[in-house]
Amino acid sequence: MTVAMLACGLMSGQTNFSDDPLHAVFETKDAESFWKAFDRIETSKENPFNEYIKNGSPGVQGFVPFRIMNADSLYTTVKRRKEDYIKSRNVLSEISLKEKRIKAIYSALKYWYPKAIFPPVYFVYGRFNSGGTVSKDGIIIGTEMLTDLNGITGLITHELIHFQQGIQGDDTLLKQSLTEGGADFLGEFISGETINSKPFQYGETHSAQLCKEFITKLKGNDYQDWLYGISKKDDRPNDLGYWMGYKIVEAYFNKQSDKHQAIDHILHIQNPFLFLKESGFLDSYIQEYANGKNMKFDDFFKEYSDEVHEVTFLVSVPDKNDEVYITGNQPELGNWNPSSIKMNRKGNKERSITLKIHLPAQLKFTQGTWDKEAEIKGREKGQNITIENIKSKKLHYEIKDWYKN
Q1: What letter does residue 383 receive in the DSSP assignment?
Q2: DSSP 59-90
Q3: Model pLDDT for residues 123-158, shown as the tens digit of each residue
Q4: Residue partners of 134: CB distance under 8 A and separation at least 6
Q5: Contacts of residue 392, Cβ cutoff 8 Å, sequence gap at least 6
Q6: Across 52-60, average pLDDT
Q7: 3-state SS, one letter per residue, for 17-55
Q8: Smallest Cα–Cα separation from 282: which of 304, 252, 242?
Q9: Cα gap 281→252, rounded to integer Å
Q10: Is 139 buried (19+), middle (13-18) or exposed (0-12) by CB count in 10 A?
Q11: What is the DSSP string of 191-212?
Q12: Which domains does the chain have, with CATH numbers?
């Protein structure tokens, strides 16, 4: 499944791919190239995977950042897990049989969503850290993760749905759960095949407990215990957000009379909070939560509250010449315009600004462009800063460095 958040808008905007499901391309040359390099490990004086990466397809190039990393990293992993790689050596020998089934599924998507496009599917080799993802160039499958082709149609279908998606809104747990759960729901709808059985079984068994927890987390961008990793605070499996997103999307879909239009809306959710409200799936839990907070039911679905908090942001910068801009999820924070609100110079290496904001707030610091985004000390690179409550009217942040997004 996908490991990181998807640039769905970019992917759905691609126009240079076939809109005919029967013309979809399944590319296995990278797998052949990998095994040629693999067979030279013991005899080559140089790293044989240099050539695999250098001559790799757009699929390999899309797998290099965050997954393969570089030829040396791949070489080290292959040496350490040689026997695990060997298990997949002949796994693609019957892929042509699966292609027929996949193209039939693609045709089903074309019926329900006529605007569908069908990018190439690249079978590549990585470092056992991703079963599949999408890039602007197509669907990429981590072949080393396969010991057989059982489930490959479901995986490719899931990633195909991701390629069609263009979901809007801030990067919240709700949005990402709808992204993943929507891909699962629509993938199952057109293929009849289910994936991610563990979180679904656990979710159905612990539904009430999970729904109560989810509504307290859905507006933030902390995915732990819901997507891509667990804290082991209990016995839950990974990726319960897939299940939750699926259930919300399913509830929405079942309420719509025009199923073609419903699928279009699911692929292009404009406001995740209004979509949740329209689904009705969590209504009883949200009403209970709102009552406990003396909140109106409808107010829960607002991205942030009407209440205003005055906050002073103090930012330490790595260089005295650095100019800093603040941007975030509301007009008072520039509505994610990276150059609309410039911070004031307070000293050689400190910048400040006082703003009136709404909670929860999400924000980032830039140098006036998304090409120069701040890496904040103590926070994961690229993650939004989320402010859910105000403990102090002065908030301090230290910028370690700037990076190109």
Answers
A1: P
A2: HHHHHIIIII--HHHHHHHHHHTHHHHHTTTT
A3: 999 999 989 899 999 999 999 999 999 999 999 999
A4: 2, 6, 11, 119, 140, 159, 162, 163
A5: none
A6: 97
A7: CECCHHHCCEECHHHHHHHHHHCCCCCCCCCCHHHHHHC
A8: 252
A9: 8
A10: buried
A11: H-----HHHHHHHHHTHHHHHH
A12: 8-164 (no CATH), 173-299 (no CATH), 309-403 (2.60.40.10)
Structure token digits, residue 253: 């879909």
- Which tens digits make up the pLDDT trace of 174-199? 999 999 999 999 999 999 999 889 99
Angle at Cα 156 formed by Cα 120 and Cα 174, nearest 5°? Answer: 115
Residue keyed to tokens 């899309």: 62
- Residue that the structure tokens 């407990």 belong to: 209
Short-list 328, 215, 186, CA closest to 276: 215
Half-sphere exposure of 130 (CA within 13 A, CB side): 25
Residue 231 DSSP code? -
Contact 37, 49 (CB under 8 A): yes
